[in-house]
Write a structure and sequence with these properties.
It is built from 18 helices and ten strands. With about 475 residues, it is mainly alpha-helical. The chain folds into three domains: about 110 residues, no CATH class; about 130 residues, no CATH class; about 190 residues, hpI Integrase, Chain A, CATH 1.10.443. A hairpin with a 2-residue loop joins strand 8 and strand 9.
Length: about 475
């Protein structure tokens, strides 16, 4: 039997720039196989360390290249995310080949190299920093403590989605995407697969996106039946993955050179931005609609209040306090951006029309202390989770009854809480209000965000503008 040899190889086939991925090149019985280390390096750095693979000269002062040489060709190096002294990439592969000896196979090598450094399980009290799914759940837990329930649920959904994707991988995909071998033992089920940050490559994310667009959504009431997720959902989940990758780079857990997002790497899909604005005529029909008392009238009133109050969303409406109102002026800070723009809080000023004041009078709580909520949906004794549930229920009921209002007025567009905000922005634009004014009224921090809210112009307005050509 011929000797099994180990070398390192820079694979540039999938790269459009001057960098590549370092891979183990294993030769065995006349056959060769490549196994990725996940380490991305520039061609110049690779040429340098390969030239000196037998030993780097003492006069070389480039700290980056000395560390890279230690990581690839030295005996040991200090691992970034654990601080432990571990074998270099070449040394660990040779150690595994020597251990397998006559039992060597490419599959066994793939398994052993994937398990490197994981022989002992960390204490349950110690978080594994190089675990993408654990990073997502940890971030979700932190958001829950801060009362950011919606974001926390979204991060939790992302971690669950990634776990389902990993469990769905075929043996071939496990090898190609994660460099993991087939499941050889019953005690190593697919659910035990840990997704490391270095395994989140552009190829992995592309495969995840394709899977999401086929199986990304679990049907209600079942854990098995799936349907396609939208590109919007894919974009949200991938932005969450990008967020924990950024955290990992910041903490030193992930090598910045392995960052998988951006130009010539993986581009996060934006999804389609379906315009949700109504025409002004349709809005006036809704305002004039004779409602049945109860939920229908409350739903119509909340929708109109949102439209008249700068497109205020339901989360912010439910959280208005009496201290936020002074005469015909309402001021508030959007919950959505309250934390992300903490250093530069953007206070939104709303003019309360007579119609808005009448809605407040009709539905306001009896408690009128400055810190009491205006509308009787929330109270301070509620947990953040309970407040989120109540707001979601208000939105659900409002949307349900607004469908009936739309149908009664023969409005074919979707009429929901989103359309009130989009209609506010688009109708202002069509009345030739400056874009900067609309952006400020919506509480946006950039004009580009405002532009994405705006629907298309109606036919009459289009004809008016085009008439300037003649």
């Amino acid at each position: 039997m011929g000797a099994t040899t180990v070398n390192l190889f820079l694979d540039k086939r999938a790269s459009k720039g001057d960098d590549g991925v370092v891979k183990w090149l294993i030769s065995h019985e006349g056959k060769q196989r490549l196994f990725t280390t996940g380490l991305k390096v520039s061609e110049q750095d690779w040429d340098f360390v390969k030239k000196h693979k037998s030993g780097i000269p003492g006069q070389v002062k480039n700290d980056h290249r000395r560390k890279l040489w230690n990581k690839l060709f030295g005996n040991t190096f200090e691992e970034d995310y654990t601080g432990k002294e571990v074998e270099s990439y070449l040394a660990r592969a040779r150690t595994i080949v020597g251990k397998l000896d006559d039992d060597f196979s490419f599959e066994r090598f793939a398994y052993e190299i994937s398990m490197f450094g994981r022989e002992t399980k960390p204490s349950k009290d110690v978080k594994d920093k190089n675990n993408v799914i654990e990073a997502l759940t940890t971030k979700a837990a932190g958001m829950t403590k801060e009362g950011r329930i919606g974001n926390a649920l979204s991060y939790t959904s992302t971690s669950s989605s990634l776990q389902r994707f990993l469990e769905s991988l075929t043996e071939k995909q496990r090898l190609e995407l994660l460099n993991l071998p087939p499941v050889l033992r019953k005690e190593s089920p697919k659910k035990d697969v840990i997704l490391r940050f270095e395994q989140v490559t552009p190829e992995f994310l592309t495969s995840y996106e394709k899977w999401m667009l086929k199986h990304g959504r679990i049907r209600k009431g079942t854990e098995v039946s799936t349907s396609p997720a939208t590109l919007t959902t894919v974009g949200i989940y991938c932005r969450h993955i990008r967020s924990v990758c950024n955290d990992a780079i910041e903490s030193g857990t992930m090598d910045r050179a392995l960052y998988p997002f951006g130009k010539r790497r993986y581009m996060i899909p934006a999804g389609s931005n379906t315009k949700k604005a109504l025409s002004k005529d349709d809005v006036l029909k809704i305002m004039a609609h004779k409602c049945s008392p109860g939920f229908e009238q409350r739903s119509r009133d909340l929708w109109v209040f949102s439209y008249l109050c700068n497109g205020m969303n339901m989360n912010d409406i439910c959280r208005i306090r009496w201290q936020d109102i002074e005469g015909d002026r309402l001021t508030f800070i959007r919950q959505k951006t309250a934390r992300s723009t903490r250093g530069n809080q953007n206070t939104i000023k709303v003019t309360l029309f007579e119609e808005s004041q009448a809605i407040i009078k009709r539905w306001a709580s009896e408690n009128r202390k400055p810190k009491d909520y205006v509308f009787p949906f929330l109270h301070d004794e509620m947990t953040p989770e309970r407040q989120k549930t109540v707001i979601n229920q208000v939105v659900k009921i409002t949307n349900q009854y607004m469908k009936d209002v739309a149908a009664a007025n023969k409005i074919t567009e979707d009429v929901n809480t989103y359309s009130a905000r989009h209609s506010f922005a688009t109708i202002l634009l069509q009345s030739e209000a400056p874009l900067a004014f609309i952006s400020q009224a919506l509480g946006h921090t950039s004009i580009s965000t405002t532009e994405s809210y705006l629907g298309s112009f109606d036919d009459e307005k289009t004809k008016k503008y085009l008439s300037a050509l003649l």
